[in-house]
Amino acid sequence: MKNDKDVENTEDAGVVCPRCGSRNIARIFRGMPAFTEELQRELDEGKVILGGCEVEGIYPLPRYHCNDCEEEF
Predict the structure, then answer these.
(1) Measured distance CA(62)–CA(56) in Å, rounded
(2) pTM of the predicted protein model
(3) What is the pLDDT of residue 4?
(4) What span, in angstroms and rounded, lies between the C-alpha atoms of 61 and 28?
(5) Where are the alpha helices (DSSP H) in the chain?
(6) Is 66 exposed, middle or buried (CB count within 10 Å of its CB: 0-12, 13-18, 19+)?
(7) CB-based contact 48:29 (threshold 8 Å)
(8) What is the predicted pLDDT for the residue at 57?
């Protein structure tokens, strides 16, 4: 039986946390989301996290969040 750390949460299987090497990664969803059952399911499963309403300006914002060490990259 697999535990949560064995499951790759992102659609992009190549995403690995640069800090701890985990593949238990969530996409950071920014903006004002339409709150749906699908979004709630993805939040519950750790596939996405809400990143607030910040938009990119002069610097790029992190796209991913490590569910294990909480690094954003």
Answers:
(1) 10
(2) 0.74
(3) 43
(4) 9
(5) 37-44
(6) buried
(7) yes
(8) 74
Q: How far is CA 5 from CA 22, 57, 68, 70, in A?
A: 8, 33, 8, 13
Which residues, in sequence order, are CB contacts of 73 under 8 Å at separation 6+?
17, 18, 19, 62, 63, 64, 66
Neighbours of 9 (CB within 10 A): 20
26 by Cβ neighbours in 10 Å (0-12 / 13-18 / 19+) ranks as buried
Q: How confident is the model at residue 21 (pLDDT cuts 50, 70, 90)?
A: very high
Q: What is the average pLDDT across 57-63?
A: 84
Radius of gyration of the chain (CA): 13
Average pLDDT, stretch 48-71? Answer: 88
| d(C-alpha 10, C-alpha 14), whole Å | 9
Q: What backbone phi and psi angles, to 5 degrees, belong to 52? A: 90, -170
